[in-house]
Sequence to fold (275 residues):
Amino acid sequence: MIWTAFFLTLIFTGLLVGTLSGLLGVGGGFIMVPILLWLFMAMGLPEEIALRLALGTSLAVIIPTAISGALGHRRRGLVVWRAGYLLGISAAAGGIIGAAIATHLPPEPVRIFFGLVMLAAGLRILLPQKAVGQDAPEIRDDRYLLWGFPVGAVSGLAGIGGGVVLIPILTSVLRFGMLRAVATSTVVMIFAATAGTLSYMIAGIGVSGLPPGTIGYVGLLQAVVLVAVSIPAAQFGAATAHRLPPVVLRAAFVLFTGYLGLRMIGLFSFLGLPL
Fold:
């Protein structure tokens, strides 16, 4: 009965993650990490091990999910490939460093950092912004390389694809339209998540107390179930994104990041709210 509940939870999570990946250009790590943390702790693992497994497994799932979302957006011609590659290369370097830091920190500061990233990203999208068109802006290559690194570092440290941080940067700083930002973000996530996943795998090799079916800090069974569900859901999300006004995408982004950010920093628990 318990395992049935675990699998149903993973299936529901995969559907939600995939849809959000294609819809909002985010990896869905901000959904997966809290749920995977709960599942691993329910298996009897200490919080320190459970959190690192949640972070590493989340990044592993983001790779194929982001690929699926990027292909969906590519068919509609909205991916800015040069920006995606340059941001992605820089983000990969940042992802390695972020993951290395996370595997040496206690769980509480990592969890709080995760929550603060969510709140900051949602707030930046919520603030008034100048109107921008959907055409790709002319940006120097060094600016892409500059912004990709911190996105990757946050990705590795918080177990997310980085889209939740990158979308505000693309729209507010680099002047991308919302749809182009969503589409290009999926390409960058492939680079950042791959680098972070490899780092978590390597860092967890030889660590005692890990459950069976893991490679380092990546849970293979959980990742396979999530990927199998999230990939088709990402295609659905990408198709839906092109039918919605940008203001709706922004509102959805803000709501999800706000809720999960407050939950991860522990505000709801502090107030005694069952959320």
User: Anything to note?
Assistant: The two ends are 24 Å apart (CA to CA). Residues 9 and 78 are 33 Å apart (CA to CA). The longest helix spans residues 47-74. The chain has eleven helices and two strands.
